[in-house]
Amino acid sequence: MSLLNQDLDTKLSLNENKNGLESLDIQINEGEEVPFQDKGHKPRELTEDEKLKLESDQQLVSEFKRNKYELDAKKNWDLFYRRNKANFFKDRYWTFREFDELNEDHHSIENDESMTSQKPIKKLIEIGCGVGNFMYPLIKNNKHIFVYACDFSTDAIQLLKSNPDYDTNRCLGFVCDITKENYLKECLPENELVDAVTLIFVLSAIHPDKMRKAAENIAQVLRPGGIVFVRDYGIYDHSMIRFEKGHKLDEKFYVRQDGTRTFFFSLEEIENIFLKPVENSDVKLFEKSINEYVFRETVNVKENLRVPRVFIQSKFIRTNSHFSRTC
Ligand SMILES: C[S@@+](CC[C@H](N)C(=O)[O-])C[C@H]1O[C@@H](n2cnc3c(N)ncnc32)[C@H](O)[C@@H]1O
């Protein structure tokens, strides 16, 4: 382990003991970000130390515990929000820079009758909205947008609704498990199709076996030409390297100290979730618009820490192929 990493781990583990593993995210988020950002299609290269650390962590958590984490997924997110209230995640202002379509002045063709994503985004579903760190900046920034905001944590939705900016003319919060068949569709007014769906650090919280089901449920409520915006953890993000032994559930899938889980995506995996044809057919529900790694570096000046962050950022466009769960 290099001196820098050793130093980093010592400092971070102090933090960890006090608050649990996820506090690293706070530590990093609150750090001052240097204006470094790069994008690409190849994963980050690991250092020798990082390779060794990942290679030495092969032992998976027992099957009994893995099943229990899945059964308790909602409970663990509820406890997370009960403990952290609305103070954990930072407001997501970067979305306007990265996803131009969400800006009020985005150039769009208002009267475009074709099934294209050029139509303005007027209705959007934010899935796994938490307490609204993405939604509140969005409705403030874009006066023409209405947001359905859902999360499977009842506590998160309560906190979302207790925000003084919660206004049912602009948004509607509700509890929904995105992996349950037809659940999302049934939460919306009958036959409602929206212009866009956002998944901001949500797919990673879902068991890999259920991610495709989430995409299918989204396809039921997104109009042809509508956009799915995804931002999530990418493979070899610093938070993946930091997991100590005893947290690995599967390849690239880890459990935090508080029982919440996180997956680290390659571009191929994200593509597979959205682009895989519907079973027993060659029907595709989505087309790829963008799918790339975002490389950042986060610096916490106070702690003198500098760590590489990797995210995946993608846009998928709903095709006009018919899709219903009953077919
Ligand atoms: C890492 S948090 C991200 C919260 C928010 N999107 C943000 O970026 O601030 C993941 C969120 O996904 C929610 N979640 C996990 N599994 C879900 C599911 N099956 N259906 C809906 N929401 C889910 C959790 O409750 C949690 O609020």
TrEMBL record:
<keyword id="KW-0489">Methyltransferase</keyword>
<dbReference type="GO" id="GO:0032259">
    <property type="term" value="P:methylation"/>
</dbReference>
<comment type="function">
    <text>S-adenosyl-L-methionine-dependent methyltransferase.</text>
</comment>
<dbReference type="GO" id="GO:0008757">
    <property type="term" value="F:S-adenosylmethionine-dependent methyltransferase activity"/>
</dbReference>
<dbReference type="InterPro" id="IPR029063">
    <property type="entry name" value="SAM-dependent_MTases_sf"/>
</dbReference>
<dbReference type="InterPro" id="IPR013217">
    <property type="entry name" value="Methyltransf_12"/>
</dbReference>
<dbReference type="Pfam" id="PF08242">
    <property type="entry name" value="Methyltransf_12"/>
</dbReference>
<dbReference type="InterPro" id="IPR026113">
    <property type="entry name" value="METTL2/6/8-like"/>
</dbReference>
<comment type="similarity">
    <text>Belongs to the methyltransferase superfamily. METL family.</text>
</comment>
<feature type="domain" description="Methyltransferase type 12">
    <location>
        <begin position="125"/>
        <end position="228"/>
    </location>
</feature>
<keyword id="KW-0808">Transferase</keyword>
<protein>
    <recommendedName>
        <fullName>tRNA N(3)-methylcytidine methyltransferase</fullName>
        <ecNumber>2.1.1.-</ecNumber>
    </recommendedName>
</protein>
<dbReference type="GO" id="GO:0008173">
    <property type="term" value="F:RNA methyltransferase activity"/>
</dbReference>
